[in-house]
Every structure is written in C-alpha cells, then in structure tokens.
Amino acid sequence: MSETNVDVFTALAHPTRRQILQDLREGEQSAGEIAGRFTSSGPTISRHLSVLRAAGLVTERREANRILYSLAGEQLAHSVGNFLSAVCPEQMLLRGLRHRAPSAASPADVSPEASLGS
C-alpha cells in the first residue's frame, strides 16, 4: 500500500477525524467552527486537522486571521478505490468493464471467475 494510502487510512482511524470530514461535507468551515462542535480542546482539534491535511483529505486557506478548511473528497475516493481494487478482484473486473466500449458485456454478463481465468 502506498504511503499516501497509509496516511489516509491512519487519518480515518479516529472517530473525531471522521466526524470532521462529515461536517465538512456541508461546506468550508473555520477552525473555530470545527472546534466548537467538539468537547476536545482547540489544540487537540488542530492536531486532528493537521493529520487530515497531511493525508490530503482536507485543504486549508487563510482569510485574514482565520484558517478555513474544505473537504478534499477526491483523495479519499482515490485511496479507498485503490485499496478495494487491490483486495477485491471483483472490483478490478468491474472497473475494466466500465472502461470498455459501450458494446462490451455488462458486469452481469461476465462472471468474475471467468474473467480471472479460473
């Protein structure tokens, strides 16, 4: 597993970080707004945000004296997709079928065992 994927799954391991990601689905939020939703201290939430940023799951921008965070969902989708493809051969088959021409067989027409040479 790549280092980026390890960072993503490490970031997802903590329930507070998962909740932060869910909250950011609503849109950009300041560090103070995020911290206000938790009983943890500001520095603790700041460390969680740092882990999420290092994993590429959130982006930040400065506006005057505030730091605003946004969800970077593409990185999460890419990392989880790569992981599933590695551990679930059926996912590789389905991904290959999606990239074929429209006249190609649908996933229901091809069994995973047949495509994997079983």
TrEMBL record:
UniProt superkingdom: Bacteria
Any single Pfam family the record assigns to this protein: HTH_20
Lineage of source species: Bacteria, Bacillati, Actinomycetota, Actinomycetes, Micrococcales
HTH arsR-type domain: residues covered: 1-91
Species whose genome carries this gene: Paeniglutamicibacter kerguelensis
Name of the molecule in the record: DNA-binding transcriptional ArsR family regulator
Region (Disordered): 99-118
Annotated keywords: DNA-binding, Transcription, Transcription regulation
Residue ranges, compositional bias (Low complexity): 102-118
